[in-house]
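Instructor's aside before we start: the two examples that follow are unrelated to each other. I chose them only because their records fit on one page, so don't look for a connection. First example below.
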Amino acid sequence: MNQGLFQLVFSNRRVRLAMLLIVVILFIYMLVSHLTNGHITVNTDSPNNVISLIKIDENGQQTTLDSSQGVQLKVTVPGGKYEISVNNRSSGITKNIAIQARHSATYQLNIPTPIEPVSVLSAGALGVAADKQQMFYLDSNTSTVYRLADSGTPEATGTTALDSAQWANTSFGIGQDSSNNLYVIRNGGVSPLPVPFGPSSGVSVSYSVSSSGLVYVSSGGSIYAGQYGESFHKVFSVDSDKLELFAGSNKLAIVASVGDKGDNDNIILVDASGKRLTSKTTNAASASWSPDGKQLAVISDWASGTIYDTSLNKVADLGNSLGSVVWLNSSALLYSRAQDLWKYDVRQGTGQILSSAPGGEQISGLFLSDDRSSVFLTAQSQNSAHILLRVGLTQQTQNVPAYYSGLNILFPSYTGQCSFSYTNFLHPVLLITAWSNTDTCLDAAKEELKADNLPISGFDIQFQAPVDD
């Protein structure tokens, strides 16, 4: 009996020790959790919104940790960098945050109403320059530069076929053809650009033009700079024959490819005189400078976006699946992700969907107007049809009739021996191409506008000559 009592006491002691051990482990866990974790509360204004917390690692990779539909999300997580995302069916907003251990933070994120884009052309553009009176664009179908002004009818400014074009403003730009020849675009007119090197088979030729009109060109690994009308001079050389140039207001970013896949691209920053400032090895496909030349947005071959300072230290991650990027001002930029146009505020670390292509088209290009009051979007649908849209960035440029937004869905269209298309730069113009009686086509155009509930008086109706196939 004494032996049984001893076993019972010993057994109870083991239970007590086990329980004490569990309590100690729980205490240590809670202490470590308290010392290393932070608390986040996210509030939003609609129960239909979905709130997500996303972890961002040191390489910019994102992992969703928690997600919930409703007006609030409360999470306890280790200290580190995170992204808060609030979305609904049509729009969204994000905020990059840094959580400190033993700290609590509360955020209010309400999704702003997105801006309806305005349909400008039923054609795509590989480059756009626009001011308040006129717009020049490189048509992606014809490879020709066109001018669009008060008449509303696109006017070809020449016959030179270009593969790409980049404008400093509506008065000046640079273009390149399929043979790597470079051209100057002056008020829409296209003429050869005198460069300090001749054509050479297999040698890569790149170019970029700053907002002030300073032109950079490269042939192989040699880089030259100059103003139009002046001689180019060599400013830098790189041990690579595959360069991409990205001009800023007072600096140049050079992406020098190393290897076939560009896994070890070198980003090299130089000033306008060619003095090397810094460099970094990373993957890069394109880049864009802030207007003050203090920040550089880089998109990789895998469509991830990163903002760097002039020492190429990381300032912010923009996420994945990015298309084009352009700076709105020195503290905010615009970028495309699939069919959405995003605005990112560097100082606040917040991003929001500003607008979306109306038919779900994928946005492939962004171009700011000269006064930065509008941004033009080239978008492509699943059937490869291109359109050009405009999003107003000021109250004045946003204040347009609602029917301006859906023109790309209705046109181009065809009725008998008549075809209808549109332009909508300064005002809506319905362009009629008639292969038969013009009066018949005019009547058909008015009937189509009426059937689509569009005001006939809201359109300037013009005829254009048929184009021979």
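Example two begins here.
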Amino acid sequence: MDYPRESRTNPDDKTIGLIAGWGNYPITLVRALKADGYKVVCIGVHNHADPVLAELCDVFRYSGLAKFGRACGFFRRHHVNRAVMAGKIFKELLLQPGFIFRQLPDPHTIRTFLSIFFSPKTDFNSDTLLLASVRAFEQKGIHLIPATDLVPSFLLGRGRLTDRPITPRQWDDIRCAWPLTREIGRLDIGQMTVVQDKRILAIEGVGGTDRTARRGVSLGKSGDVSIIKIGKPNQDMRFDVPTMGMETLKAMVKNGISLLAMEAGRTIMIEPPEELARFANEHGLTIVALRDEDRLSDTCPFDQALITPVPPPKEEPVDRTPPGAGKSVPFTRLTRRRPSAGQAADLNYGWPYARALGQYGVGRTVLIRKRSVIEVETIEGVEAAVARGKESRCPGALVLVYRIANSDNVCEPLGAGVIEAMKDAKATLLAVDESYPMDRGALAEAADRAGIVFGTVSRD
């Protein structure tokens, strides 16, 4: 039902629709829009949006994730022709078996998402899902625009936000992790890495920022740990833009993280910069916002706490697929059980991603589900990475083990323990680089007992 604060008015530029997910960002955005005189008509995603939005917005209603036709009708009844997205949607929910059917999708949702959910040729990446969501609204005359077009002051400028200077060691970590973080953004895997002493401790997957930060700190040594969080190349500013707010900084303090490096012009500040700077300074945190070209400097270019406003970087065409994507993977099956059509599609999709990450000395183990990367190993070991598949609540995942061409990454022989970890995580297929040290016979026997498909992949 619609909450009671509705008043139908003639359409004008001061009526804006909001699709609200989880977190404080939608709340901050509504307050800013109302202060600028906008009438806000909001759809809050069930089990995501904060109930306080019902009090802040002029019109509010909850809606399920698979009710796009209903949402469009709601917006049109309230004279909305422009809308914005704000807040997180938990992607791991979409990867759970039968999720879309439990949502009872309406006809418009079925027509829009049918090929994504059921075609083996379509990936399940965040941009694919979000662009389909944009199309679902635009087909009904509702145009999605960047929230920062309405409140440009939310964009983080370039420079150092805090008093604490960046140490040479931290600057080396930023320069080391920045290209990899940009690459995982290009591949639509995640937006964040955790780094210490030029070692990548964690890479964001479907688990999100807080879980990635906790894992990175647990794998590092005591001392400075840094987070690098940046947008994708050619970031679509309508959705999935990196954010920074008080909750981000509190999580840094809780997890023992000392530095946050973000991208100037492609980061949204959920609270005013002076509030963020004050909290960060009180807790000894360092926050810096860079452009790509800044990391080329041997030393940090910011010698004082000063933020300069900058526009988003110029957009350029970007290929979001790794080399070899779309080709059949040379998989040699070593078990009685054969891969299903869905498993074969996931394997063909996922192996080029494992290979692309391997060029950066990470990604020895990659978990794939529904043609989407859900977890990436860094230094914790194959079995520990597989166990995270259970934490991600994505049963049916494929486990891809790639031998990284890096002398610092010594490969421990793969044993039957990985099969036990896969059983516990409900993973269904193990594909291993043929050059990876392993006992193929023992793995095949254990996989057969567990009902898991196992085989090797040629490097050619």
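The two ends are 58 Å apart (CA to CA).
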